[in-house]
Amino acid sequence: MYTPNLYKNENPEEIRAFLKENSFGILINQTNGKLCATHIPIELEVNADGKEILQGHISKLNPQAEGFKENDEILAVFTGPHSYISSSWYDHENVPTWNYIAVHVYGRIKIVDYETSVEQLKKLVDKYEANSKNPVRVEDLSEKTMREARGIFGFEIEIDEIQATKKLSQNRDDHNYKNIISELEKTENPQSIAVAKEMSKCRK
């Protein structure tokens, strides 16, 4: 991922928190000579060896999985808030731009066994059911319903490299920086307001 030095995020704790909060990602690989992508939850976890990995699952009907046998190299893309930045918000002439946060994870994927896949599903469901009024638990599902789990491939990704970009107008002086935040907050657009909040955290 092309990232000018000014916008590189090399803070492991920030990146870890970002991946946990923005875990609906894009899994990209090459299958039969073509690039394939699937939009799925991909969770940051720690394996038995204490090493951070990504894990998730895809349908066995998804042809993307065929490529894992030929070439286990993958790219997982995660995006956070983003917004158009109008140059009319500056006190000088310049070009418009876009502010955003994104993380690319490069690694090697392997399919896990059925039992491990079910354990992954339990963690995933528990995470997203935590605030439900009547939370669903995988352990409580009938045998008939759980047969559907036979239709997925669970996977783990050994992480080789992480590239993180946090482009939030770091190149602007304090006056223009504060004005960008103010204008973003006026938009009433949830993405723009989220960018404003991230910018406020970076510079008081």
From TrEMBL:
Family matches, as InterPro entries: Split_barrel_FMN-bd, TR_PAI2-type
From which domain of life does this come? Bacteria
Query: Which SUPFAM superfamilies does the entry mention?
Result: FMN-binding split barrel
Q: Which PANTHER family match?
A: PROTEASE SYNTHASE AND SPORULATION PROTEIN PAI 2 (PTHR35802:SF1)
Recorded protein name is FMN-binding negative transcriptional regulator
- The species is Flavobacterium chungangensis
Q: Upper lineage ranks?
A: Bacteria, Pseudomonadati, Bacteroidota, Flavobacteriia, Flavobacteriales
